[in-house]
């Protein structure tokens, strides 16, 4: 079922997701503080709006508005958006917010007679364009109303209902914590091999690792691509690693829940300390972040902490 929906936030993820929506035949009404990107997408078929009021005015009830904005902007968007909507409309938060904040916001939205879904989105800008993975929190009946839309935005079988409001963002937060640990292990392993006395071919090792071994994965594939692009010395890549809030949130949540998580905690602390202690492990992790997320990673380049 094709939809006309509002779409707020056209950063790397939002921009590419709107392109996918258009490709699938949906009608997004787009808004962002960056007028240039709004106009660019307007030239590619999206309906444009230069205010949230203009977004809402172009939609018919029951309306759907998808927000893809940084976590520190969500409250401002909701404060302006909620009074513009009517009972029965739906707000979707597809960005990366702390799950406790998401639970609070869901109550706020529900109290206004609106529906709410929080969607943890994985796959980076490439996934947003070519098919992401989505973890959905909220009421199951609301999730079920949007399965057709989710199917169009995701890879095959790449979406699912996680639980009550906040669950989508909680599961994505844990996902990012796991991701931190996996990337850290890859970085440490390849630094060990680089420093060994055996004159190892790291590019060839990455290739073989990615063909039938237990650690075959998208991450190893991205490392193989990074070696092809930058060479195994990764000379132009920063050994200082940026980090998003979710890795820290995952480590903090583990403590709150009484769950030992030394791998996630250690991987997060490595990133924090890498600012003062850059290393080849950090170069590997930075290169991986660039491959899937488009994060800044070159030496002397600002470290990008946003996903």
Features:
307 residues; alpha/beta; 51% helix; globular; 14 helices; 8-stranded mixed β-sheet
Describe the protein.
With 307 residues, the protein is of the alpha/beta class. It is 51% helix and 15% strand. It is built from 14 helices and eight strands. It has an eight-stranded mixed beta sheet, with helices on both faces. The radius of gyration is 20 Å and the shape is globular. The model is unreliable at 302-307 (pLDDT under 50).
Beta content comes to 5-15%
Radius of gyration: 20 Å
Counted by DSSP, the helix tally is 14
| Content-based structural category | alpha/beta
Strand segment count: 8
Distance between the termini: 29 Å
User: pLDDT under 50 segments (min length 5)?
Assistant: 302-307
What is the helix/strand order? EHEHEHEHEHEHEHHEHHHHHH
Specify the biggest β-sheet. Answer: 8 strands, mixed
Spatial arrangement of strands, main beta sheet: 3-2-1-4-5-6-7-8
What is the oligomeric state here?
A: single chain
Describe the global form. Answer: globular
What is the residue-mean pLDDT, rounded to a whole number? Answer: 95
